[in-house]
Amino acid sequence: MPIPYDIVIPAYNAHNELPVLLKQIDLLIHKPQKIYIIDDGSKKSYSFPEFPNLNVHIYRYERNRGKGMAIRKGLELFLNNNDTPFLLLMDADGQHPVQSIPDFLKKAQTQPFDLLIGNRVGRVGKMPLLRIFSNTVSSLIVSWITGERIVDSQCGFRLLRRRLIENIQLKEKGFQVETELIIKSAKQGYKIGFIPIPTIYNGQKSNIKHFSDTVRFIQIIIKEILSR
User: Fold this and answer.
1) Of 176, 197, 178, 181, whose CA–CA distance to 119 is shortest?
2) Cross-strand bridge partners of residue 195
3) Residue 216 is inside which H or E element, if any?
4) 150 within 8 A of 192, measured Cβ to Cβ
5) How far apart are CA 157 and CA 123, in angstroms?
6) Buried b (16+ CB within 10 A) or exposed e, 195-216
7) Is the dihedral of CA 155, 158, 163, 169 positive or negative?
8) Which of 148, 138, 140, 144 is nearest to 188 (CA)?
9) pLDDT higher for 143 or 204?
10) Which of 166, 172, 183, 200 is most exposed by smallest CB count within 10 Å?
11) Given this model, what pLDDT does residue 13 score?
12) Distance (Å, rounded) from C-alpha 134 to C-alpha 188?
């Protein structure tokens, strides 16, 4: 029998994409027990048709707090509201293929991974060259820091085991939380794996602020080096 899981979706101005994503999730044979949508201060509240087969909960920040804050709130809600053993993180913009969810669940069920990350390497499709370069460089740096081969450090499509969430304290407020999660997981000895996924890029404007987020990424790396 497939493993039980919940989904956390941080969402910022994804009013067109989010209903499509939920519709795709509703078509899954093995559906999540709960879906937590963290509205990170979108310009207007989300309104979409009800999905009677999905248990959807929306938590709204009145102002934009950053993806890291949204993810941290989602993890908090997950821990405080059930005892489901696995949590899947997905972006709201439709770039994470719902059809890959069974692959995550199957691998987690058959192998003792604590953190499974989508791997888009070799499947870059129409992804802009700047994002390809950024992911390649950051993955090499995170691999060096952790001593493990991290092939896609920036992919937010991830399956987390409950014990990992219970024992790792995240502090980052922005996109850097994804790097922080990998580094802290590796540092504490949790087993990290990857799932090949197709790259979906449909031209949405990224919420990443390239210069400021690059600076913060460098700050994380420097803090990790100094803490050794």
Assistant:
1) 197
2) 118
3) helix 210-226
4) yes
5) 15
6) bebebebeeeeebbeeeebeeb
7) positive
8) 148
9) 143
10) 166
11) 94
12) 26
Task: Let me know: does 138 contact 180? Beta carbons within 8 Å.
Answer: no
- Strands (E) in the chain, as ranges, are 5-11, 35-40, 56-61, 86-89, 115-119, 158-161, 192-196
Q: Output the CA torsion sign for 100, 104, 105, 106.
A: positive
Distance, in Å, from the CA atom of 68 to the CA atom of 50, rounded to the nearest integer, reads 27
Tally of residues, the chain: 228
3-state secondary structure of 61: strand
From the options 3.30.1660.10, 3.40.50.10680, 3.90.550.10, 1.10.1740.10, give the CATH code of 5-226. 3.90.550.10
Instruction: Pull the structure tokens for residue 147.
Output: 């001593």
β-sheet bridge partners, residue 193: 116
Domain boundaries, given as residue ranges, for the chain: 5-226
Residue 38: phi and psi, rounded to 5, are -100, 105
Band (pLDDT 50/70/90 cuts) for residue 50 is confident
Non-local CB neighbours of 147 within 8 Å, separated by 6+ positions: 186
